Amino acid sequence: MVASPETIPVAESPHPPCGACLTHVRNLGVRLSGQTVLEDLSFDLRCGEITALVGPNGAGKTTLLRALLGEVPFSGSCHFHGGPGHPTRRRLVIGYVPQRLGFDRAAPLTVADLFALTSGGQPAYLGLTEAARTAACASLAEVDAAHLLNRRLGDLSGGELQRVLLALSLSPSPDMLLLDEPQQGLDAAGLTRFYELVARLRGRFDMAVVLVSHDLAAVARIADRVFFLDRRLLASGPPAEVLNKIKPM
Amino acid sequence: MHLLSEFWHGLIGALPWAWAHYGYMRLALLAVLLAAPLFALIGTQVVGLRLVFFSDTLGHAALAGLGIGVVARLAEPWWAMLVWAIVIALLMTWVQRRSRAAADTVLGVFMAFSVALGIMLLSRSGQSNRLVTYLIGDVLGITGPGLAGLAIVLLVAIALSWRWFNALALTGLNASLAGSRGVRVAWVQTGFALLVAVAVTMVIPWIGLLLINAFLVLPAAAARLLARDTRQYLACATILALTAGIGGLISSFYWDTPTGATIVLWAAAFYAFAFIMHPHRASQSQSAVTET
Hints:
The complex is a heterodimer. By secondary structure, chain A is of the alpha/beta class. Helices cover 29% and strands 24% of the residues of chain A. Chain A has helices at residues 61-68, 111-118, 130-142, 158-169, 188-204, 216-222, 239-246, and strands spanning 22-32, 35-46, 50-54, 75-81, 94-97, 176-180, 208-212, 225-230, 232-237. In chain A, helix 3 crosses helix 4. Chain A starts with 21 loop residues before the first strand and ends with a helix. Chain B has helices spanning 2-13, 23-48, 52-71, 78-98, 103-124, 128-136, 144-173, 175-180, 185-207, 212-226, 230-255, 259-277, 279-285. In chain B, helix 3 packs across helix 9. The longest helix of chain B is centred in the middle third of the chain and has 30 residues, at 144-173. Chain B is globular and about 55 Å long. Classes of the chains: A alpha/beta, B mainly alpha. Chains A and B meet through strand 5, helix 2, helix 4 and helix 5 of A and helix 7, helix 8, helix 10, helix 11 and helix 13 of B.
């Protein structure tokens, strides 16, 4: 499920979605501490599409992301099929943007350090290698954040940090991008800008985007499909259709 | 090995100061030069991962190991301390992962249990006097095997850090993010807990179990206030640990004070200095910044 970084070139040039890369999820179920958190989920995720996961608190949205990440055991199946133009890889590469990072604002940690930690190369206390620095700059440029490379994480605004995390998830180029409630720490303008960025990247990278959100209005603007989840998949389809269906609920 | 020893004694013995004329001071200096970088390397991660209470619990758990070693009539009860520290480190990691109780509660239980067990066993065996040796430690009593042990653990820690430093730091930032990057989170956490257990137990006889955690944590905590990136953080922690170690050792010679406590006082002074020099970091940490 999880890609090993050494099997993948560090700086890949992105290419537009082919529309043929598919992740088939069938009858996925998760039980945690004896309780059913998710059951009988079946859906497809296609490259170039933004799928929004909405649902009440405790509906299992984050658990579904954790299952896709391979972090929690699940029943059922999850298979990835690369399209004809897809580079040969043994496993699915997942980019993940977490809700938050566990650091205090005084932490001696720069954006460059964050890329060094994930580069799969030398320990971060030796700094970034030249190749890793080039790749980091390329990823940051994708989210208009190349100027942030040497800034401390604690000095970044909420929006800047989200963009940096997004850039981090693009290297190596993912088949699937998972965003877990990216609205945390952003105001309305910042969120709009962030979602516009995600929509732009969707058109540049050959990847499926899965977005967990409580913000239904924003979801309606950028998602191609919405999954309404409450332990089971209760509704799925184009945003307007699903949002109409769930309004009475 | 004999040549190395002669070289070291010759080199330091040639220094013009009084302390350098004593063989035990020359060996203690070597111990500090090995322990300081070891503790800086581990301490930076301990502070970064918010494991300060965890390492403190391991230090205090040594008491129970000592008690068991004495009751079992081991010639060298230190080995019982090592085994006990490893068992406790594994247990604490396992319980923390499975328990819903707050981490500090779980650690508090382990610390209380170990301290109580240690005191009971030592007092039953009538060897409470052994307690003081390990509570305060005595780096001036270090010999060849102790130094060799420190050197081996330092080399192992550096070798492991080459492979684990990034994985561990990423796990501290976000376990799911680390997992998505191929990090085996549970293995990395358990492995680091073992490394802390071994390193702490290795140094306890020389610094003492009361102050071991202070020597582990203070240089890193001070460096955290002064550094702006990971490289500076480790470099600064190493320099501070070395300076506190050497300064504490030499000043304890002239002041006739216990070396472990003097080293820790130096480290505490460095922390106070770093805190005063960079108070703006503390005020920054309270400011909530939103999108610009």
